Amino acid sequence: MSLADLKLHANVSELLLYLKCPRQVYYTYREQELMPTISSGYIEHMMLKELAMGYADVIKKAKPTKESILEELSAQFERVKSELDFIYSTELKNVPFNVIETAEKNVFELLDNIATNLSDAVFKSNEVDIIQSIMPHRTEPVLHSDRLKLTGIPSAIVQYGERMVPLSIRTGRCPENGVWGNDRIHIAALSMLVEENGGKIVEFGFVEYAKEGKIRKVKVRPEDRRQVLKIRDRVDRIKDGNLPERKEGKICEHCNFTHLCTTKSTLASKFF
C-alpha cells in the first residue's frame, strides 16, 4: 500500500513537522510543496544518511581500531559518492557540480571524528552489540496501522537479539546526552508501528547521529506514546481544516510558505 493511498491517516513525518511548525502541516497537506533548497548542506544530509546506512558494515569489516575503521569508512564514503546520483536522481538533477563538490569536502572532513566515535563505541560496548543496533534488517519499510491511524517509514528495522526495533538516522547535531525531544517522539511513533505490524511489544529503538557516528538507545516511555497520540490527533484536526496559530522563529527564514502564512489566528487555533 502506497503512502498516497494512506493520505487520510497521519504520517509520522507530519508529527515531526508539527513539532517544528504546525502551520507547515496545514499547507503541505493542501498540496503546497515544501521543497528543500538543494544546497550543499542538503546534499551533505543525503550523503550522511547513505554513509550511516553502512556504518555496521564498516565496523564488521574493520579491525577494532580507529585507523582500521577510518580506512573502511573512507572506502564507504567513496561508494556513497559514486552511487548518490543513482539514489537521488530527481533531487540532484541540474545541481551544479561545485555544490556537490562542497558537500563532499565537508563530509570528508567529518570522517576522522566519525571513526573515533565508532571505535569508542566498540571499545565501550562490544562489536556484536553495536552492529546489531545499526545493521538494517529492512531499509525504509512503509509501516501502517489502521488501529493507530498512523503511517511511517523508519530509516531501518534492525534485529537486536530476538527483537525487531526501529532505527532512525539523523544528520543533525548530536546532543551531549540522550536524544533530542523530537527524536524521542519519532522513535516512540515508529516503535508503536513496529508493534502493530509485528505483534510484539517494542520497548526501545535506536537513534544514529550520522554526522558524529554516535548511537543512542532510546527507551520508549508511556509518556512518549501518549504524546504521539496527542500530536496525531492535532495533526488530524489540522488536516480537517483547522488553521493552527502562527509561530515565528528561525524556521521561518527559509520557509516556502512565508507568503501564505499571513492569516490571523482564531481562538481555537491557540489550542494547537
TrEMBL record:
GO molecular function: hydrolase activity; iron-sulfur cluster binding; metal ion binding; nuclease activity
Span of domain DUF83: 188-262
Cofactor(s) for this UniProt protein: [4Fe-4S] cluster
Highest taxon in the source lineage: Archaea
Keywords: Hydrolase, Iron, Iron-sulfur, Metal-binding, Nuclease
InterPro entries in UniProt: Cas4_exonuclease, Dna2/Cas4_DUF83, PDDEXK-like_dom_sf
Name of the protein in its database record: Dna2/Cas4 domain-containing protein
Organism listed in the record: Methanococcoides seepicolus
